[in-house]
Amino acid sequence: MTDVLSDVLRLIRLKSCVYFARDFRSPWGMRMDAGVFAQFHAVLRGNCVVSHAGHAIDGSAGDVFLFPAGDAHQIADAVDRSAVPGPAFMESLATDAPLFTDGGAPTRLLCGHYEYRNDIRHPLIDELAPLIHVRSFENQAPETLNGILPMLARELSDARPGATAAAEKLAEILLIQVIRAHFEQARHHAGLIAGLLDPRLTNAFALVHNQYGQHVSLDDMAGAAGMSRSAFAAHFRTQAGMTPVAYLTVWRMCIAFDLLTSDRLPVAEAALRVGYESDIAFGRAFKRHFGQTPGVVRRHAKVAA
Fold it and tell me: Residue 255 in contact with residue 274, Cβ under 8 Å?
C-alpha cells in the first residue's frame, strides 16, 4: 500500500502551503468557496463546527478536516454563525486589527492547502471522499495527531530559519497520515483503496508499479499474489472494483501522461516506455482513459510550457 500511495503522490506533484496557526475567539466563522486546491484545517485547541454539503460536523482538539477536491465549506464556533470569506480573514491578518482576536474562549486552528495535478486521473485520488474527518481519539490517528501537528505548530510559532520549508514538508506528511487513516476507515468498502489494503494483492500491485514498462500478464500478477489465475482475477475485481489488467492499463496511462506532459517525450517513445509496441493500441487505450489522443495532450502541454 505504501509504495503505491507514494508512487501516486510523486506522480501528482504534491505541494503544500500552510497559512497560519492562530487563535479564533468567539464569535467567529470562516467561509471557503469551492476552489482548485485541497483545503485542510487542524484543530490544535478548543472546538469548532464544520459545515459541508448540508451537514454539520463537530470538531475538537486533535481533529483534522481535509477537503481533497476543494469543496466549499464553513468552519466556525457554532453551526448558525455568520461567516466571513476566507480571503477576507487572510487580508485582516496584514492589518492592525485581525479578525476574531477578541471574545470568548479561543479555538486554535492550523490551516492550509495542498496543490496537486488533477489531470492524471488516478482512481486512488478519485476515490477520496469529498470530506475526510480524522478524529483525535480514533485508533488510526495517534501518530498523525500527537506527533505531526505539534511539530507543525512549533515550526510556525518559532519562525526559525527554514521554518516555512519545514512546515510545508510536515504538512505533506500530515496529508499522508490522514489518507492512511481514510484508508483504514474505507477498509470494508469495495474500491481501489480496499484492494490496496488487501495483503493478498500487495505483491500484485507492486509488480504493476515496478514493471509497467514490460510485458505483464494476468498469470504474472496471479503468481505474484500466490493465487491461481481465476481466483486472483475474481478476488482482485471484488476488492478493487476493476480487473487486474484494467489497473495495469490505468497505471500505464498515468505514467504515459506524465511522460508526454512533463518530459514531453514523443508519443512513440512514451508508448514504448509503458509497455506498448503498437502506437495504435497505445493511442486507443490513452484516449479511453483521458478522452484525448496522446498527440493532442502532448501538443497542449508544449503550448502551456
Answer: yes
As to burial, measured by CB atoms within 10 angstroms (0-12 exposed, 13-18 middle, 19+ buried), residue 216 is: buried
Q: Are residues 178 and 53 in the same domain?
A: yes
Last residue of a domain, which of 163, 185, 207? 185
Q: What is the pLDDT of residues 240-277, one digit of tens each?
A: 999 999 999 999 999 999 999 999 999 999 999 999 99
Q: Are residues 200 and 73 in the same domain?
A: no
The residue segments making up the domain with residue 262 are 194-304
66 contacts 131 by C-beta, under 8 angstroms: yes
* pTM of structure: 0.89
**Which residues are within 8 A (CB) of 261 and not within 5 positions of it... i.e. 6 or more apart?**
119, 297, 298, 301
- DSSP helix/strand/coil, 250: helix
Chain centroid offset of residue 216 CA: 28
Q: What is the pLDDT of residues 20-58, one digit of tens each?
A: 999 999 999 999 999 999 999 999 999 999 999 999 999
For residue 104, the tally of other CB atoms under 10 A from its CB is 11
Answer for the pair 113, 37: CB distance below 8 angstroms, yes or no: yes
pLDDT band per the 50, 70, 90 thresholds, residue 1: very low
